Amino acid sequence: MRPIVPMRAALSDRDLFGGVLVGSSWDAWRTLLIAICGEALTDEERVVFKALTGRECESLERVEEFWAIVGRRSGKTRAVAVLAVFLAILGSYAD
């Protein structure tokens, strides 16, 4: 899958996902979604990424699997819905 629009751009575009994960409480999910899609993180995002995953840096490759242990009302359904729609409509699967 080759992204038509990068996840970072889609998350900030009001016509795409810019109005879905709004506010600082969604920073962790936005960081994880960007990393899951294999995009480079900013220095601030890398601090969040390290705190959540224990890894020094992102892989810069789209992951095949993502596992998370998160509690109730943590936003996982909304975040994964954004990822699913991103993969479905903003990715090119033509080789």
Mean pLDDT score: 93
Whole-Å distance between the termini? Answer: 8 Å
Percent of residues in helices: 40-55%
Low-confidence stretches: none
**Secondary structure tally: strands:** 2
Characterize the main sheet.
2 strands, antiparallel
Principal-axis shape: globular
Number of H- or I-type helical stretches: 4
Kindly provide the radius of gyration, computed on alpha-carbon positions and rounded to a whole number of angstroms.
13 Å
- The domain count comes to 1
Strand content is under 5%
How would you characterize the overall build of this protein?
The chain is mainly α and about 100 residues long. The protein has one domain (about 1-90). It has four helices and two strands. It has helices spanning about 5-10, 25-35, 45-55, 75-90, and strands spanning about 1-5, 90. It has a two-stranded antiparallel ribbon. Helix 2 packs across helix 3. The chain is globular, with a radius of gyration of 13 Å.
